[in-house]
Amino acid sequence: MGHFMFWTEDENTGKTVYTQADLDTYTSIVYLDTSTDEIERRRAGDMQRQRGVAHAWHIQRWKDEEKARLRELCHDNGILFSIMTAGEDDYSRVLKMLQYHLCTVEMNEGLVLAEVDKLITSNQEPQIVVVLDADKTLAPVDTGALYWELLKEWSDGTADNIGDPVSSLFQHSAWKYSYSAFRQATLLYNDSASASEFERLCDLTAIQVDLFPELMSLLRRGLNRQHLQVLVITSGLRRVWEKVLLRHGLGSDVSVIGGGRMDDGYVVTPLSKRSVVQHLQTRHKMRVWAVGDSPIDLPMLQAADRAVVVVTNEGVRSRTMESALQSAIDHEGLVAQQLLLPAHVRPRLSTRQLPLMDDIDRKITTDIHLQFHHFTETPAAKLLMTPMRDARISGVALREAHRRVGWFLAVQCLSAVMNLERKPIVHVQGQNTDGYCFENEARTTIVAMMRGGESMAFGVNDAMPTAYFVHAFEAKDVTNLHLNGQTTVVLVDAVVNSGASVVQFVRHIRGEHPQIRIIVMTGVIYRGSLHRGGVIHGLSKEGLLTIIALRVSENSFKGSRGTDTGNRLFMTTHLK
């Protein structure tokens, strides 16, 4: 607590009472903005001191000058500055303000990643997450600059001297793109309008934003793909982008990570963007595409599995990105492609250093090499898995249960993966009509991975009776005789635990016929084998692989004797 300026009414300017040591010491300053009427009342009621005359106009001038000078000094010295209007709930607001000012980089990153964890839904199990910047990436506009323009218009001239303080902040040598700069930007937005006014300004801003059609298609694709999720991460105003997406029919499905107001609790910095990408890769075991346009996005572009630089019209694009991009390519090993929006704009750098990307929507879709389907929580799966897990059931009854699962997975899911084709049949009433079978059914090879996979493989064969059927104890048992002229191989095993056996079969088959489609079908698969670092996940880098499972298990368990699936199927539980 302290004073900044003293100013009597007969003086032209006030006298500041601070030292350079103060500026070197303080990291945050909160200005308590008490109303002019309240200050007059307090001065009049002060019986302890003799105070000179100070009319309302002078008190207001004094306050305005203090705020302007303090803001300028804090701006030049890298000190967080905020204004808090005095009111009845001063204590709780001061506490919230202090908590905000005391939030460290580590605390902030924790809050951002916690938000990511909430948004990544485990039941979707996406393999690919597309992380997109917002301003000048999703649309050719800087919504922050637009916000300040609208504030000036909306304020009836009272904010004519505001300009765009956030842009000025990031351009200042004391701030640049530091963590403190993003915290201060939030305080500037916080001070600019009340909560309700801020919402209204965000509405007005969002109305003027039209998304690039090419990225609209990508955003919509994320809604309809089980293996793909889209996250928008912005260092700007989260509420604006939520409203933009809502206006384009995407708001309830595409999540936005970002701040803008103190109540949001966190800010999104370049470090935050990189941390989000790395967190998705390591914690959630996902492949990440990052899409951005400016130096703020470079850390996440460098961390991502695939990086795309959006290049817009020269009047809109970041002026500092060219040199930053060149440096990242030359000295930090950035590998990226550029997406021209619209397609006729001048590319950045050279297309040798930064190759062009066209049809990003299709490129991301085809990057999903591991397609995974399961029925874990469905009523059908719960019924079908019951006899398979019942220790009292073995032998013929268990083999029949496995056979039913094979038929169910083939009819319910494999039919959609492989597609169907018409075949002529004779209707019971005598006329010809259309029936259906699996597409290229006769050019499909079913491989029963012995011995646990045999019963389920018979069930698959029931659904596609004209397919080849092969018993294989080892990968080498599948020969060219079983593969020549075939389009698809369906590998069937009762249980996939580590996935090591599946990997051996897949690599052997690909070695013989690299272009053949491989589909793995199983009753239960261990989730860890599918995650980044798991052996099956590693196969996705080598080519397209589809896995169909009745259910997913969180436990890795290798049975023996009475708990071994093969022994239970064939009544050999007494054997080692």
Notes on the protein architecture:
The chain is an alpha/beta fold and 576 residues long. It folds into 3 domains: 5-101, Rossmann fold; 106-140 and 211-363, HAD superfamily/HAD-like (Rossmann fold, 3-Layer(aba) Sandwich); 370-569, Rossmann fold. The chain is 42% helix and 19% strand. It has 22 helices and 18 strands. The chain has a 6-stranded parallel sheet, sandwiched between helices. The longest helix has 24 residues, at 395-418. 37% of the residues are buried. This is Phosphoribosyltransferase domain-containing protein.
Topology:
Elements (H helix, E strand, L loop, with lengths): L4 E2 L8 E2 L3 H6 L2 E6 L2 H10 L10 H22 L2 E6 L4 H12 L3 H15 L8 E5 L10 H12 L10 H7 L7 H14 L2 H13 L5 H12 L3 E10 H10 L7 E5 L10 H13 L4 E6 L5 H6 L2 E6 L9 H11 L5 E4 L19 H7 L3 E5 L4 H11 L5 H24 L1 E7 L5 E7 L5 E6 L4 H10 L4 E5 L7 H4 L4 E9 L3 H13 L4 E10 L8 H5 L5 E9 L11 H5 L7
Parallel strand pairs: 3-4, 5-6, 5-8, 6-7, 8-9, 9-10, 11-18, 14-15, 14-16, 16-17, 17-18
Antiparallel strand pairs: 1-2, 12-13
Helix pairs in contact: 5-12, 6-9, 7-8, 9-11, 16-17, 17-18
GO molecular function: L-phosphoserine phosphatase activity; magnesium ion binding
Protein name: Phosphoribosyltransferase domain-containing protein
Organism: Meristemomyces frigidus
